[in-house]
């Protein structure tokens, strides 16, 4: 870990920097949140560029409020048009409730993609 060579006055505990990355091997989070123009190729396109979005979120990047709301609204519109029940051809992989854990969702897609025998 990166830390200042000086010690805390009251103990021998090192003083860690708040301006530098303490773990140099961990990439820094993006400094600018993604906006609608970064994610969508045109205003009429309701599907974001998933690779850009995935990489940004894996690096713990943020979205602007407008971009997040646009994705939510576009997704809600798609779901409203879908039937309640659908027929899916086997084989399939079913993922239970992940309670908003993005990294678990990304890992699940990675596993399914590596097998390429199932429908994600």
From TrEMBL:
One of its GO terms (molecular function) is calmodulin-dependent protein phosphatase activity. Residues 1-10 have a biased composition (Basic and acidic residues). GO terms for biological process: calcineurin-mediated signaling. Residues 11-20 have a biased composition (Polar residues). It comes from the Eukaryota. Residues 1-46 are annotated as: Disordered. This is Protein-serine/threonine phosphatase. It comes from Didymodactylos carnosus.
């Amino acid at each position: 870990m990166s830390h200042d060579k000086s010690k805390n006055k009251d103990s021998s505990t090192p003083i860690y920097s708040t301006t530098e990355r303490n773990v140099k091997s961990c990439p820094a989070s993006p400094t600018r949140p993604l906006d609608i123009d970064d994610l969508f190729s045109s205003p009429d396109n309701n599907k974001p560029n998933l690779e850009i979005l995935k990489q940004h979120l894996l690096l713990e990047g943020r979205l602007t409020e407008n971009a997040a709301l646009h994705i939510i609204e576009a997704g809600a519109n798609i779901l409203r048009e879908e039937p309640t029940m659908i027929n899916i051809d086997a084989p399939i992989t079913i993922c239970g409730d992940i309670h908003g854990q993005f990294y678990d969702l990304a890992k699940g897609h990675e596993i399914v993609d590596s097998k390429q025998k199932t429908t994600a």
